[in-house]
Amino acid sequence: MPDFSPDLAKNVVQAFLTSQFDKKTEKEQRQLAKAIEDNDLDKISELKEKLSKFEDRYSLEVWMDNAANRMTKQIGFGTHISKGIHSSSKGDNINFDPNTALPKAVVGHQSIKNHQLDASGNAAALPLYSFFEFEVQDGKKVKDYIIENDNSFELSLSSDPDLSKQYFKAFRQALVGKNKQPITSEYNKQTLWPHANKQYTCIIPLYPSSLTNIVFQKIQHIKYSDETSSKRKNRFSNKEDVIQAAYPTISDIAVVKLGGSNPQGVSRHMSTQGGINYLLPSLPPTLTRYNTHFKPSRFATSIFSNALEKRISPTLLKIFSAIKTKPNNVKVRDLRKQAMDEVLTQIFDYAHYMQNELPAGWSKDQVNLNDSEKFWLDPRRAELEGEESWKEKREAEDWHKDIIHSYARWINSLLQKKFKDIKDGFSDTEHTQWERDMQAMIDLYERAGKGVFL
């Protein structure tokens, strides 16, 4: 984009000052118009005198002198702010402009092409932020020309060329000045990064306000844009002329609020965000198909319970679906067998967890759990001192058959509950088939060297 002419730059600056004047005197200007309409001479004189003071305040020479010599010292700009760590911090902000790229699949500050500078400090100096953010053309703002050292804007800030250059230098220093001796605060955190020879670098983390602001804007658009809101509303409409369409959503979002009831005390971005900062899920990957950490409740009589039913409900749905399907051909029966095998795999994984991960003797606290399942799920209890009789009983009894029988009875009861109209169809024949299925899986595990009954 070519440089602006000094005259055009001056028009932009004057347009900003006019907008600030109109914003501050909106009430008085309405009152003046009403007073003129009513021919109230005293009120007209009073309001004109009041507006004259505002005109002086927002004149080019007065406002720029105040902005360059006072506001720049009372407000700090940066992509990373100190008050985001603690709202009472008086540490310096940093405008971080890295020249290195992040590795692939890593998202951070460098991932943003156009950083939105944040500002924190005295609220009375925030008009300087508004000046820097004033749009010139095609999305380009005053701050962009100042950062780029545009000659036209260098001469647009005062009728005195020397003063204009002085103001421009002060503004540019506030936006991009590299602080050779940045100041931290006792409220900031510290991280000591070790080097060789027992040396350390003290790192002061700052809040990545520019990055979190972009994340906030994107999530707000996804969740609350007019298009999304309309599609969400149409989802529940029964009108024939309403078109229903898919819309995006984001789940498992947490919110951190900065600044309490006064987010402006943290920064300009926090003020516009209402202090809200979104946190996306940051969780370790699930390495298995399901969580194998399962044990019956303390008062359960069996592992084959409502709790187990809820835990493996997605797999049970596959069984139910296969049973519903007609005709009952070979393909359908294979799907049902596959789902049954998946149920058994999950149950055996839960058993493996209880056998090997829970402390030996955990079943002693299970006041109602039947002995057969205690023998199955807590085999290392036999190794404990004082459990000799329990060990002998475990070795003497043929409890394995009880487990198989309990599983088959449980499956049959689930099917009878699900298909009440044909519940009589799940009888001894089906019960025997579920026992055979479980025995077949037990044999398969044993051939693979993974005994189900230890």
UniProtKB/TrEMBL annotation:
<dbReference type="InterPro" id="IPR013397">
    <property type="entry name" value="CRISPR-assoc_prot_Csy1"/>
</dbReference>
<dbReference type="Pfam" id="PF09611">
    <property type="entry name" value="Cas_Csy1"/>
</dbReference>
<protein>
    <submittedName>
        <fullName>CRISPR-associated protein Csy1</fullName>
    </submittedName>
</protein>
